[in-house]
Amino acid sequence: MAKAPATRAKKKRVVRKKFDIASVVSAVETVTVSKINKVAVGQFVKAEKAVERANNAVATAEARVAKAVDAVAAAKTPAAKAKQRERAATLRAAVAKAKAAARAAAAEQRSAEKLVVALHKAHEKAYAAYAKAYDRSAAAAAKAAAKKPRPRKKVAKKAAAPATA
């Protein structure tokens, strides 16, 4: 039985190179040639902090829901139970909002990460082109320096024209 051909996505998955984002960010930060690098690093750091805050908010909201569920179980009268159920429902809605905010922050972080990685790749590509051009010109200079100077042709001086007065 023939093996199914690898899809384009699978091929990309195999080729895709994983980067250590911390080292990429520090590498992009050191390149001060372009302002976009500074902006991209700033965006990435900001997005990272936003994700952290959002995750903390989700954890806090979930803890509140757990407390509210315990309060529903502990409530003694039907009116108290109804009140606690209402409170728990409100807190569950808050958890849903916090999770949505966390997803949005994570998406923002991914796009900032993509930009930083793209800038890093662009810098590496440009540096490779620069190094290649430098090697070519260095080789040409070495070749030129190694050549022996050609002897100049001696041209006989023309005789001065007789002065007519």
Instruction: Report the end-to-end length measured between terminal Cα atoms.
Output: 110 Å
The helicity comes to over 70%
Radius of gyration: 35 Å
Number of structural domains: 1
Low-confidence stretches: none
Tally of helical runs: 4
Provide the residue-averaged pLDDT: 86
Tell me how many strands there are: 0
Class from secondary-structure proportions: mainly alpha
Shape: rod-shaped
**H/E topology pattern:** HHHH
Largest sheet: none
Strand percent estimate: under 5%
Task: Give a short synopsis of this structure.
The protein is mostly helical and 165 residues long. Helices cover 77% and strands 0% of the residues. The longest helix has 69 residues, at 78-146.
How would you characterize the overall build of this protein?
The structure is a single chain. Helix 2 packs across helix 4 and helix 3 packs antiparallel against helix 4. The protein starts with 7 loop residues before the first helix and ends in a 19-residue tail after the last helix. It has one domain. It has four helices and no strands. 77% of the residues lie in helices and 0% in strands. It is mostly helical and 165 residues long.
SSE topology:
Elements (H helix, E strand, L loop, with lengths): L7 H8 L5 H10 L4 H40 L3 H69 L19
Helix pairs in contact: 2-4, 3-4
Output the keywords.
single chain; 165 residues
